[in-house]
Amino acid sequence: MEMDCDRIELFQTIPAETLVEVLVVRNYQTGDQIFTQGDPTTGLWCVMAGKVAMERVAGDGTLATPGVWIEGDMVGIAGLWDQSSYPASARALSTPTTMGWIPRLVVLRLHQEIPLFGLEISRQLAERLRYIQESISSRQGRPMVQQVASALLTLSARMGNSIVLTHEDLAHIIGTHRETVSRALRELTRDGVVNSRHGVIEVVDGDRLRDWSGA
């Protein structure tokens, strides 16, 4: 656990002796549910290894993926202060996925007692807000192949050139149908920009992907 914690900026702000007492580490396999939309927010989760998809079901049953989080990212923070429920479910995208969990009341105490801990939470929240705003603005009203290219460009910056997502996952991120994403990926594949196989989208030419995205 020490090596994993050393890589996580949020955990670096907590004294080692305190971290040992408050941190719970849990391991998941691909597809495992970490927590479920609507459940009470029990604490702060942080990705220590692997990848996690957030999945939200709307009132009409539509499934959307508002984010994919990687090592160092906080997960499930929305209800820490007001005790609201999780607004989305969290699902492991890789094996193993290792999560660190700190109980809600402990997080609130650390937030008051350790200024650097609170600053790191604020920094990550600001970064996430910027990521969401840029993701929305870069796709609205544009041709689907450009939307797919833009989404892949953003994901590759976070996950590397091997993006472990199915066409269905990518469709949920963009807010469209799997078949529509598959058609756009075939066009990008024909142009030598990506190579798509089951569960993995490989970015072959990052410069051309950027051109396609209109970035």
What's the order of the H and E elements? HHHEEEEEEEEHHHEHHEEH
Rounded radius of gyration (Å): 18 Å
- Outline the biggest β-sheet: 4 strands, antiparallel
Low-confidence stretches: none
Percent range of helical residues: 40-55%
Structural class: alpha+beta
Tell me how many strands there are. Answer: 11
- The spatial strand order of the largest sheet comes to 1-8-3-6
The rounded distance between the terminal residues' Cα atoms is 39 Å
- Give the strand content: 15-25%
Shape: elongated
Mean pLDDT score? 90
Structural features, described:
It contains 9 helices and 11 strands. The protein is an alpha+beta fold. A 4-stranded antiparallel beta sheet has the order 1-8-3-6. The protein has a 4-stranded antiparallel beta sheet with strand order 2-7-4-5. It is elongated.
Secondary structure blueprint with pairings:
Blueprint: H1 2-6, H2 9-12, H3 16-22, E1 24-28, E2 33-35, E3 43-49, E4 52-57, E5 63-69, E6 74-75, E7 89-92, E8 97-103, H4 104-113, H5 115-137, H6 144-159, E9 162-163, H7 167-174, H8 178-190, E10 194-197, E11 200-203, H9 206-213
Antiparallel strand pairs: 1-8, 2-7, 3-6, 3-8, 4-5, 4-7, 9-11, 10-11
